[in-house]
Amino acid sequence: MRLFPFKRSRRKQKVFVIGLDCADPELVFNKWRDDLPNLNGLAASGLYGNLQSTIPAITVPAWSSMLSSKDPGTLGFYGFRNRANYTYDKMTIAMGNAVREKRVWNYLTDAGLTSVVIGVPQTYPVRPLKGHLISGFLTPNTKSDFTYPHAFRNEVLSVAPEFDFDVKEFRTDDKDFLLEQIYRMTESHFKVIDYALTKKPWDFFMAMEIGVDRIHHGFWHFMDKEHFRYKPGNPYENVILDYYKTMDTKIGEWLSHLDEDTVVLIVSDHGAKRMEGGICINEWLWRNGYLRFMHDPKPGRIVKFEDMDVDWGRTKAWGSGGYYGRLCLNVKGREPEGTVDPSEYEKLCDEIIEKLTALPDPDGKPIPTRIFKSHEIYRSVNGIPPDLFVYFGDLYWRSVGTLGYESWHTFENDTGPDSCNHAEYGMFIFYDPKNKRNGQTVDGAQLMDIAPTILDCMGVRIPDDLQGRSLNRLAP
Fold it and tell me: The whole model's pTM is what?
């Protein structure tokens, strides 16, 4: 991982950041370029390009990695749910108190600068800062203490009494209801952002919108002509485009409030792509002798892994479902009933990697699966990561944790209707009114470059232990 110490910057600009969870660079910069005049107007005058996500490419830990410039290993969490210890069933949810590294607004508070932060993941429970904060989508409800300072809560609910942190369920077949939820939630966010942008003092302003992610997962196959479920002329074909256009129009309104001393950043934590199917990771492990049960699963009777009676004394590995696969080894001296001798650990990892990367699709065609060893990809490893992260089919295939299938391929999502997977690359646009770059593209940018970019623009020293570098220094 990269480590770039910098001298104190001379810049002292304000920074305005809009986060679009799951916004995809192919849609913004190519497919819908002419439909999004504000986003692409910024890109045409500034820097823009792909933004490589974390491993794993998922909302948690990606946003915290972006804003702390620390990788997931340093942060110590690797998804929403993480192993609490080396037992087999105890898990924790990575809420805001899991983030022990400083994020951008903490450095700015130390420097005496004022921040407004709205909707950023892992900010609940709230913690003090110089400025105002509304916590993100893991917040239980508006009855909770979701703002800093506490009194700001009354202002938020006065402006948007119907304020929502997230849609209630984005994996649903009731698409009309889902679309209504997404727009209702987004409009409540718009009202609050409008209010804070014009009524609250700030040097740094950041708002994150999760609606992009939710509309992708709910409606992708209606839009993507390469998706096997796509039907021409369906009534939802333009739903995602219309939502992007709504966001673009609103961003244009927000830009009208900014002056020539304000840098603008548009960022996403990862991208999106069609989901072609699922690889049943535990089904495969069982059929290949790595995972054993007291009573074997029966084909045609789908069952959650957590409901199976695992024979841990004969099990070498088990996995979890999700947009990426998480695979854990049952190691002697580490897990309670470990079977894998530490001296055989690397050999077993390599064996499983070789076999999983060779898995084809149901027609025998290869899929470019990539697998990462957690102890090799991070600067340090804290918490308890999976031993292997699996990107089935380069993330065109998700990982399915349930069992009871007739093979290890499936075309049904075991957690509900979802036709979109995450892509490794999100997007960024960096516009500095005092240093226009005329639409230069930047190669090699990654999430951890965003925090040092913000600090660099605002004249705050970039700490030596940040793992990214300022886009000002990455650009040609």
Answer: 0.95
